[in-house]
């Protein structure tokens, strides 16, 4: 496993071949956990749109391995393991199952439940197996987990600090019953929670043979070496950038109450092999739910940094060691306890990333990219005549916005938002029609939505959706981006903003705002969705004429 100690008397260095094997084995475990989650979860938001993430942390709570799922989840998951470790210090045993979602105690926002399972060897804690998954409903004042009318967290849903959900390999049925009873779709909630626990247990099962084969001390040594290698790789990249300090800004349209043009400001300083991101100049926290929890803010900063590194850099604790984060409590990026934060994994996460990339666009232009589109969610609840007595909650994941252009080429069309980077899927149209009382009359790319540039942004999607429910439905909206499109960088143009409308069966229309509660939708009404495109990269004058001709031939330009 290890070579002899070096002449300086330091500890033995792990064999590089064995290190590579173990690194890839750990990554394979999280990928297998993700496949188990995908195949066993109940709700559309998980088994179709894949709004979940997987991670392994070591005994210290350091991120060791993650699967390629939702970037904004993973950077926050170590905070969940640390919250559990602190809440149950000295009282963590093999066979325990822990659960949390509280943004002020290790979570990011209430819809994201996190299952944390300790992994033991030789009677000592060695790893944490972690699964985070977005629930279709988490109780609270409105369906679907997002309440644009919330002015405090208690109006957003069921709040769960770290709790012991089970011990000795079993689960507390009374707690499961209590949790499920506080949601509008208890069958899906319970099924999804069991899928999360099963995926986390699978991670535990796969780690045990590794620990038995190599021994817990050698595994700990290998993990430290893997993290050190990622740190060294990240620092080598930073060393090639020029030193300096830059300010980047991004703006939220509004908070749904009394604030418009909410600013997120990132002052980014690069010195040698370190990067300091100072968000303390951001605007004060808002009344509405676009505030960020602390773990989510830290995750958004790590996500922006990860986007600027080489793809080969393992995105673990080591890769983020060169990164220092400064923020001020009471600002929109770090709200004080009690503030609503449900929108934060999308907004202001996207704006934190955008502000950082804007700041660094002239420091590392070949790595910077145009902005990705913003999230504009619609959640509909009602009755489906095909399933009498069973209400449904459907979340809009179709008609995604476009990704940003980069030095490598045009942005990906209908790829989604910066916080998910293509990890969220819209799933099969036919499957959605089979599971919900909906008819997709059109679902295609939106010509002219991309920001122009040397490399244009990706196109947004457009959708015409007819509701065929058994009686009236209610909808909530939650998002941003009808005023500000995805940012163009280095001379590129912004992508188009979103435009969502509701067309009544009688032909009348109205524009949907990004933060509305209780929108009445009658059978036969249609949603007309036009999602914004990604931001362009580089001056439009430098775009290859052949690329423009291809865009015209494909119908990408009006």
From TrEMBL:
<feature type="region of interest" description="Disordered">
    <location>
        <begin position="532"/>
        <end position="558"/>
    </location>
</feature>
<dbReference type="InterPro" id="IPR045079">
    <property type="entry name" value="Oxoprolinase-like"/>
</dbReference>
<dbReference type="GO" id="GO:0017168">
    <property type="term" value="F:5-oxoprolinase (ATP-hydrolyzing) activity"/>
</dbReference>
<dbReference type="GO" id="GO:0006749">
    <property type="term" value="P:glutathione metabolic process"/>
</dbReference>
<protein>
    <submittedName>
        <fullName>Hydantoinase B/oxoprolinase family protein</fullName>
    </submittedName>
</protein>
<dbReference type="Pfam" id="PF02538">
    <property type="entry name" value="Hydantoinase_B"/>
</dbReference>
<dbReference type="GO" id="GO:0005829">
    <property type="term" value="C:cytosol"/>
</dbReference>
<dbReference type="InterPro" id="IPR003692">
    <property type="entry name" value="Hydantoinase_B"/>
</dbReference>
<feature type="region of interest" description="Disordered">
    <location>
        <begin position="476"/>
        <end position="500"/>
    </location>
</feature>
<feature type="compositionally biased region" description="Basic and acidic residues">
    <location>
        <begin position="541"/>
        <end position="558"/>
    </location>
</feature>
<feature type="domain" description="Hydantoinase B/oxoprolinase">
    <location>
        <begin position="15"/>
        <end position="540"/>
    </location>
</feature>
């Amino acid at each position: 496993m290890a070579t002899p100690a070096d002449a300086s008397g330091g500890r033995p260095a792990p064999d590089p071949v064995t290190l590579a094997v173990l690194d890839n084995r750990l990554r394979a475990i999280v990928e297998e956990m993700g496949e188990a989650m995908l195949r066993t979860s109940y709700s559309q938001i998980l088994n179709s749109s894949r709004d979940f993430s997987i991670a392994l942390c070591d005994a210290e709570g350091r991120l060791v391995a993650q699967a390629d799922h939702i970037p904004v989840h993973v950077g926050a998951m170590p905070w969940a393991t640390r919250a559990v470790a602190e809440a149950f210090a000295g009282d963590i045993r093999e066979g325990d199952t822990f659960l949390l979602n509280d943004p002020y105690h290790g979570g990011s926002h209430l819809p994201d439940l996190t299952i944390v399972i300790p992994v033991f060897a030789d009677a000592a804690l060695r790893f944490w197996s972690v699964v985070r998954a977005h629930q279709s409903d988490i109780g609270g004042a409105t369906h679907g987990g997002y309440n644009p009318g919330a002015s405090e967290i208690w109006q957003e849903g069921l709040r769960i600090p770290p709790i012991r959900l089970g011990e000795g390999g079993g689960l507390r049925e009374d707690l499961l019953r209590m949790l499920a009873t506080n949601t509008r779709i208890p069958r899906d909630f319970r099924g999804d929670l069991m899928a999360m626990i099963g995926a986390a247990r699978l991670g535990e099962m796969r780690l045990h043979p590794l620990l038995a084969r190599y021994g817990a001390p050698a595994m700990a040594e290998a993990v430290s070496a893997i993290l050190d290698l990622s740190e060294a790789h990240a620092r080598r990249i930073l060393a090639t950038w020029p030193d300096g300090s830059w300010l980047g800004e991004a703006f939220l349209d509004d908070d749904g109450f009394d604030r418009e043009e909410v600013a997120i400001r990132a002052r980014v300083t690069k010195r040698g092999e370190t990067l300091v991101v100072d968000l303390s100049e951001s605007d004060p926290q808002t009344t509405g739910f676009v505030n960020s929890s602390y773990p989510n803010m830290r995750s958004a900063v790590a996500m922006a940094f990860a986007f600027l590194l080489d793809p080969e850099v393992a995105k673990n604790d080591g890769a983020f060691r060169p990164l220092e984060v400064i923020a001020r409590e009471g600002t929109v990026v770090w709200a004080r306890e009690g503030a609503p934060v449900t929108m934060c994994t999308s907004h202001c996460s996207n704006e934190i990333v955008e502000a950082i990339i804007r700041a660094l666009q002239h420091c590392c232009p070949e790595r910077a990219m145009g902005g990705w589109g913003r999230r504009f969610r619609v959640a509909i609840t009602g009755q489906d005549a095909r399933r009498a007595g069973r209400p449904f909650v459907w979340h809009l994941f179709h008609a995604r916005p476009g990704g940003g252009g980069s030095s490598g080429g045009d942005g990906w069309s209908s790829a989604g938002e910066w916080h998910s980077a293509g990890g969220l899927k819209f799933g099969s149209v036919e499957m959605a029609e089979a599971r919900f009382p909906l008819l997709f009359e059109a679902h295609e790319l939106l010509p002219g939505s991309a920001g122009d540039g040397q490399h244009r942004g990706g196109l947004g999607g457009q959708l015409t959706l007819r509701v065929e429910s058994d009686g009236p439905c209610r909808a909530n909206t939650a998002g941003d981006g009808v005023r500000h499109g995805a940012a163009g960088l280095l001379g590129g143009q912004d992508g188009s903003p979103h435009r969502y409308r509701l067309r009544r069966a009688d032909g009348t229309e109205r524009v949907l705002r990004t933060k509305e509660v209780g929108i009445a939708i009658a059978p036969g009404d249609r949603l007309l969705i036009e999602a914004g495109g990604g931001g362009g990269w580089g001056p439009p004058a430098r775009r290859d004429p052949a690329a423009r001709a291809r865009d015209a031939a494909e119908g990408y330009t009006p």
